[in-house]
Amino acid sequence: MIWRISIIVFLFVFFTSCKNHYIKQKEEFAHLALKDNSENKTSLDSISRFKKKVDAETGRIISISEGELTKDGAETTLGNFVCDALLYAAANKFKEEKTDVVILNRGGLRTNLPKGEIKVVNIFELMPFENEMVSVKITGEKLLEFLPLLLEKKHPFFGFKIKIEGSKITSALINNLEIEKTNIYNLITSDYLANGGDNFLFLKNPVELKNYNIKIREAIIAYCDYLAINNKQIIPYKDGRLEVSK
Description:
Strand order of the largest sheet: 5-2-9-4-10
Helix content: 25-40%
CATH topology: 5'-nucleotidase,  domain 2
Largest sheet: 5 strands, mixed
Structural class: alpha+beta
Low-confidence stretches: 1-25
Radius of gyration: 26 Å
Distance between the termini: 69 Å
Oligomer: single chain
Order of helices and strands: HHEHEEHEHHEEEEEHEHE
Shape: globular
Number of helices: 8
CATH class: Alpha Beta
Mean pLDDT: 84
CATH superfamily: 5'-Nucleotidase, C-terminal domain
């Protein structure tokens, strides 16, 4: 600690004393055109090898989808698919814990996934952020605070069974049961949302929070790999978890 302070003091004195005696004589500038620089073959070879590795990984086919996965409608095939991916990752990471609810934000899913071949690059385009999976334990009372936000934004979720008529939620169940205010529910989401991002303020100050140390993007890729290994394709679906009537 003492040597750090000594260095700081020395530099201060040095630059202060120099400032009193420095006289600017003249300015000289030199211009070097970029095109005059000779290319470094070693650097170019390294970049080329690195690019080939990146292209090979991002171009890897990880699954096949029977149809396009989209954000169309109130309940979306894309949202359901990503929720399934997080459920799979949670079940493998914490096998002893049951997941009651998965919640994501609609805006966090940046693009649709195509019909046919799904590549790693498609998942990067879908989820370009570094958001990580977290497990949040919250009360039913706080979970009920999510419903107005759901009504407004139609965010993707798993675990709820919700009916909306016009501008009103008429029914909201978890595991086909009424939400009990005093119950503790285990919820999977992103660290961004758990910190109150995108107005998910109800998730702040939970009973408990665990970080999975896995990016949501990685969880989706792992789920796609799992489907491919088991000779399963992605089947876009809606199961009525969110019913909206006018």
